[in-house]
Amino acid sequence: MKTRAPRVTSQLLLRLSRALKRHLPAAVSGDDGGVHQARVTSRRLREAVPVFSTGLKGSKAGKARRKIRRLTRALGTVRELDVTVQLLDELARSMQVSRTAVEDVRTRVVKERDTRRKLMLERLESVDADQLEKRLLSVGAALDEAKSEPWRKTLAARLLTRSRRLTIAMDEAGHMYAPDRLHAVRIAAKKLRYGLELAADSGLKAAAAHVRTIKRAQDLLGKLHDLQVLQTHVAAVQAEPRSGRAQPREALEDLARHIEDQCRHLHGRYVSSAPALREAALAVRTVIAPQVASAPRRGRAIKMTLSNQPAPRAVASDR
Predict the structure, then answer these.
(1) What are φ and ψ of residue 80, in 5° steps?
(2) Phi first, then psi: what are they for 29, rounded to 5°?
(3) pTM here?
(4) Would the CA dihedral through 103, 105, 111, 117 be positive or negative?
(5) 107 near 153, Cβ under 8 Å?
(6) What pLDDT sits at residue 219?
(7) Which pairs count as long-range contacts for 39-44, CB under 8 Å and 24+ apart, including other chains?
(8) Does residue 171 surpass a pLDDT of 50?
(9) Lowest mean pLDDT, pick from 1-10, 17-26, 290-299
(10) Is residue 168 exposed (0-12), middle (13-18) or buried (19+ Cβ within 10 Å)?
(11) 62-80: per-residue pLDDT in tens?
(12) Residues with Cβ < 8 Å from 123, sequence gap 6 or more?
């Protein structure tokens, strides 16, 4: 009796499950790289499970989705502040701003991060990694036994919707420096990228180039967002009573101006790169989504691209 070969989709779920289990101990120990890697993996699982479980029965996908959602939220309480600390460490090595002002802001951020880390650990206690792995294996087994691939149309529809939302967000942002609207572009790009990664990992090579284009824009907007978050912490220190601040008012003002200049510079780079991002969104609607919706030709091998990808770098844009 022949046994059916594992599908590329079940292989992908297995790899993500193993990666999550590998990174979680480092995240729990307080390693910021571990927190980042675990959160990125959980986000990829949040994208993959609801798509791949389309039409599956008895796979326990719903329980897996709920556990993954709790995990992502738990890790997210710390990740943003880890990035803020990294930015402050970079500024501390700069000769353009007061190191005393940077350290004063850093003290505030580290204190808040330590508080959030305790909350993260409390939330992680409610997530059973072994049980989650069993749920994901159940989904993978159901995928291997399925006679059709209804997930393809689900992913194609998701890509169409998200590419349109990205284009709309870009239209609304225009060329003006508007933090809220740029943040909306970043979120739309991130969601489209995760869907495109699924298409690429399931064997559609044409999607990989668009993933790279969107990731470059997402990295740029992610760095801009991180600087804007840092601005809020600087403003909070500026608002403290003078007796609670170690540095002169002028030092904090210089720091705030320096960060604002960086934000404006990054915005200029985004404006220059926007046409390529817009073209990628259009290609997703006109080329990629239709290809995803159609099943691969019979007998044609599907190569899983995830196994050839390097581990994600610890960048804030993957949050």
Answers:
(1) -60, -40
(2) -75, -10
(3) 0.84
(4) negative
(5) no
(6) 95
(7) 39/72, 39/75, 39/76, 39/79, 39/318, 39/319, 40/312, 40/318, 41/16, 42/68, 42/71, 42/72, 42/75, 43/72, 43/194, 43/318, 44/16, 44/194, 44/197
(8) yes
(9) 1-10
(10) middle
(11) 888 888 988 888 888 788 9
(12) 70, 73, 74, 77
* DSSP conformational letter for 284: I
Q: How many residues does the chain have?
A: 319
Q: Is the pLDDT of residue 1 over 80?
A: no
Tokens representing residue 266 in the block = 């990054």
Task: Write the secondary structure of 96-152 as one string of H (helix), E (strand) and C (coil).
Answer: CCCHHHHHHHHHHHHHHHHHHHHHHHHHHCCCCHHHHHHHHHHHHHHHHHCCCCCHH
Cβ neighbours around 287 below 10 Å, total: 14
pLDDT digit string, tens, across residues 185-231: 999 999 999 999 999 998 899 999 999 999 999 999 999 999 999 99
Place of tokens 């390693």: 31
- At which residue do the structure tokens 């502040």 appear? 81
